[in-house]
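Translate structure to sequence.
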């Protein structure tokens, strides 16, 4: 009996030791959500022994996945610091996101503060009476000396709330189940790249090829969660067409079905997708959701496993510059279709319609002659959107998609369909994983390896120069062409080159395309159009009225500018009548059909209503 008792005591000590080792951490984070209806959380962070006389604690100035400085510290109040004996420590705010605590040498420090979380649309932090979404970079401060240390996060949330994250969950002991509201991050970088969703939510779990997945949905809507799960099961299997393995064992899809917030953000082994609660049932809306899920899933490799050197490691207090952000974002937009097509989650017709939309946007993007894609990448931190950006800038997503497409076709041609742009990304994943990073020279080396050709000239023309694309020549490689309908582009319609929105006194100009008829006539942003040819404009936009005119007609536009009445004569331009479509040619060659299949994974499309004779 004594032996049994001794063995029990020894075993108990071993269990206690194992448990203590298992949860040992230098940084303990406690987040308490007591009155969620007021959007508050109380945060307490305990740092192990500090080895400096004064310690600087930071809140990041930006969050991963959004290349923009954000005033995250504006939601911090009631900051305080104490040592292990409860003695209050003096502190000083030294810049907008840095708190310096005095007299910290050889002391265990505990910080306490309140966080205001009501930034749902920024996907940073949001708390209300139904849930909390917490991106730790907006909630949890860090100290440089503890950035690589394990962090343990304990949540105190209302009863009935469920907490989900891509982070590892805590355990009570050797035998017990997981702690429902405790998460463990191996370091601060993992913590801030693994958001937490806690609240009243719909939760699904599924496994595919030995990996575990979760879908958590906050908010009611017209979604079919069973179909979402079924399609996500297909989607996650398609990465094998690009990369040779998976960088995770568990992945979480977080979805916010809301009334206002839109967008999505990639994270280390999870994503957050925000969309309208009533934008799931129609096919075009559901395809948009699947496309977003595919985009963020591609980011699990492209950005989270390999990214440009300017972003390795992340500097959370400053801008992280690179001329290659187009590859991080635009190439992800390009590769997302590879997953959808190869999983037959997107039809060839839907794919070609998407291409047509992108081509149309490019043709009306006047900024393509003002800014290169390398410049747009470096200056992403300065991007403000609006009319000036539309006319004088390019976008790392849309133009990044374009140059990725150009690269893909170039590689496929040079290697006689033996290789593709997908091979470039698999090499980046195999050979340039974080913390290594890559630069432009590395990419040129990879392209040389894949194609046995020098891409220096191509790179200067398309990345550091203004890409000039003949889309019919490009599409012809895959047996496709552009069309504006059965009569093709012989019919033209009148074009003025502005976008408007209805206001109480008329139509306010929101965008003027550079070098358009309206631009040449001197119309300005915020002019309020009230009449054309002395007849009042009563439509919601100008498109209906312009149908009464032909290209090259002159019209008198009457408008208010700074509350003063003015008139301008405009000679209308012309654009092809109808919507641009990308369609298969009638007699595609075997080579073109093979090219299309290697590109998309699908058989060449056949649709007699859309086929165009070359």
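Result:
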């Amino acid at each position: 009996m004594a032996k049994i008792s001794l063995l029990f005591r020894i075993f108990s000590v071993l269990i206690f030791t194992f448990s203590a080792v298992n949860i040992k951490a230098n940084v303990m984070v406690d987040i308490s959500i007591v009155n969620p209806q007021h959007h508050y959380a109380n945060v307490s962070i305990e740092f192990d022994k500090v080895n400096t006389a004064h310690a600087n604690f930071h809140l990041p100035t930006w969050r991963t996945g959004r290349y923009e400085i954000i005033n995250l510290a504006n939601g911090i109040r009631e900051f305080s610091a104490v040592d292990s004996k409860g003695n209050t420590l003096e502190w000083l705010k030294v810049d907008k996101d840095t708190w310096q605590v005095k007299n910290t040498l050889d002391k265990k420090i505990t910080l306490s503060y309140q966080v205001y979380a009501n930034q749902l649309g920024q996907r940073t932090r949001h708390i209300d009476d139904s849930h909390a979404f917490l991106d730790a970079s907006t909630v949890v401060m860090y100290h440089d000396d503890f950035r690589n240390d394990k962090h343990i996060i304990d949540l105190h949330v209302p009863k009935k709330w469920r907490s989900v994250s891509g982070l590892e969950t805590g355990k009570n002991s050797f035998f017990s189940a997981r702690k429902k509201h405790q998460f463990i991050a191996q370091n601060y970088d993992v913590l801030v790249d693994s958001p937490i969703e806690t609240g009243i939510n719909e939760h699904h779990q599924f496994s595919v090829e030995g990996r575990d997945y979760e879908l958590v949905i906050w908010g009611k809507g017209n979604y079919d969660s069973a179909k979402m799960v079924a399609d996500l099961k297909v989607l996650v299997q398609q990465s094998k067409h690009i990369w040779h393995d998976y960088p995770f064992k568990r992945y979480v899809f977080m979805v916010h079905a809301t009334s206002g917030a839109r967008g999505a953000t990639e994270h280390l082994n999870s994503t957050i997708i925000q969309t309208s609660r009533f934008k799931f049932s129609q096919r075009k809306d559901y395809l948009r959701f699947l496309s977003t899920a595919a985009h963020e899933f591609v980011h699990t490799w492209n950005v989270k496993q390999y990214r440009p050197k300017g972003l390795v490691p992340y500097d959370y207090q400053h801008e992280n510059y690179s001329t290659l952000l187009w590859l991080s974002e635009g190439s992800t937009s390009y590769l997302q279709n590879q997953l959808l097509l190869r999983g037959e989650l997107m039809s060839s017709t839907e794919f070609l319609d998407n291409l047509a939309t992108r081509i149309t946007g490019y043709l009306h993007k006047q900024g393509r002659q003002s800014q290169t894609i390398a410049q747009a990448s470096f200056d992403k931190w300065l991007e403000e959107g609006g009319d000036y950006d539309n006319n004088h800038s390019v976008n790392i997503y849309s133009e990044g998609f374009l140059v990725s497409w150009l690269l893909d076709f170039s590689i496929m041609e040079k290697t006689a369909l033996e290789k593709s742009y997908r091979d470039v990304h698999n090499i980046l994943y195999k050979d340039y994983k974080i913390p290594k990073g890559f630069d432009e020279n590395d990419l040129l080396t990879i392209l040389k390896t894949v194609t046995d050709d020098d891409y220096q000239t191509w790179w200067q023309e398309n990345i550091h120069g203004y890409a000039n694309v003949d889309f019919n020549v490009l599409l012809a490689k895959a047996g496709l062409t552009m069309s504006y309908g059965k009569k093709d582009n012989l019919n033209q319609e009148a074009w003025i080159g502005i976008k408007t929105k209805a206001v109480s006194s008329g139509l306010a100009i929101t965008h003027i395309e550079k070098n358009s008829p309206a631009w040449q006539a001197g119309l300005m942003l915020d002019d309020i159009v009230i009449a054309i040819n002395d007849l009042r404009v009563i439509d919601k936009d100008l498109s209906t009225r312009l149908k009464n005119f032909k290209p090259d007609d002159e019209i008198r536009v009457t408008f208010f500018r700074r509350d003063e009445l003015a008139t301008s004569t405009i000679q209308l331009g012309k654009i092809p009548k109808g919507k641009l479509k990308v369609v298969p040619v009638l007699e595609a060659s075997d080579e073109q059909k093979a090219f299309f299949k290697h590109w998309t994974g699908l058989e060449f499309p056949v649709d007699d209503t859309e086929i165009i004779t070359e």
